[in-house]
């Protein structure tokens, strides 16, 4: 949710360590809904990351949002430093005695040099994949420390559902996606990265959801929120009518999956 970039109207300036950090905040206004309706990540992902680390003293969860990844990391690391630029998002985070939540931009963690065994960015690197952040990653990681970033791509289910959701993403709210979203659509392929990639397994989020739960998730999209703000119309109302044709009953649950793209590398 942050960038180091030239000053543009509509951006908030924050001066940290000589940087002008310009924050594009797509989620604070609906932080509570984001916390309730965004899917959580599979435990196997965090177990695999922990096995790749040389030590398990400190992990930094950058752009932690409401702390989903930070909480999962407590199963494997002694301390978690969790930062986000959005005070509203951090207000939704669940407290934990070994998580230190801090309001901070990605480029200024506040951590000591070479203090981290792992740095993770969950579903957010596309907002700030810049040289300033990567310099911060290299500064705080121990030699041989692991950097990991992941994103989940468009949800899918049965063929009818998948086709309608894809049409919604492209043709209904496509004009309201921020430009950085293209990295998600590309599965982070070709995106700048601070170290050489290592091979990673395939992971997937899989949940059984009702129609209303699917629509609630889609309302957390930045594109849906921008569409509502600029048009005054909730596009999910019409989408819900389309999806009802393929839903056996409102309370019925369908299996929904989000493929995860994971990129990892070591800082030497």
Q: Stretches where pLDDT falls below 50 for ≥5 residues?
A: 1-23, 26-31
Q: CATH homologous superfamily?
A: Vaccinia Virus protein VP39
* Element order: H for helix, E for strand: EEEHHEHEHEEHEHHEHHHE
CATH fold-level name: Rossmann fold
In short:
By secondary structure, this protein is of the alpha/beta class. The chain contains 10 helices and 10 strands. It has a single domain (about 1-265), classed as 3-Layer(aba) Sandwich (Rossmann fold).
Overview of this structure, please?
This protein is elongated. A seven-stranded mixed sheet has the order 6-5-4-7-8-10-9. A three-stranded antiparallel sheet has the order 1-3-2, with no helix packed on it. It has helices at 31-37, 43-52, 68-73, 87-91, 131-140, 159-172, 182-185, 211-218, 222-231, 235-244, and strands at 2-3, 12-16, 19-23, 58-62, 79-84, 99-103, 116-122, 141-152, 203-209, 254-267. A hairpin with a 2-residue loop joins strand 2 and strand 3. Residues 1-23 and 26-31 have low confidence and may be disordered. The longest helix is centred in the middle third of the chain and has 14 residues, at 159-172. The chain starts with a strand and ends with a strand. With 268 residues, the protein is an alpha/beta fold. Helix 6 runs antiparallel to helix 10 and helix 8 packs antiparallel against helix 10 (235-244). The chain contains ten helices and ten strands. It has one domain: Vaccinia Virus protein VP39 (Rossmann fold, 3-Layer(aba) Sandwich), CATH 3.40.50.150.
Primary descriptors:
268 residues; alpha/beta; Rossmann fold
How is the secondary structure organized here?
Blueprint: E1 2-3, E2 12-16, E3 19-23, H1 31-37, H2 43-52, E4 58-62, H3 68-73, E5 79-84, H4 87-91, E6 99-103, E7 116-122, H5 131-140, E8 141-152, H6 159-172, H7 182-185, E9 203-209, H8 211-218, H9 222-231, H10 235-244, E10 254-267
Helix pairs in contact: 6-10, 8-10
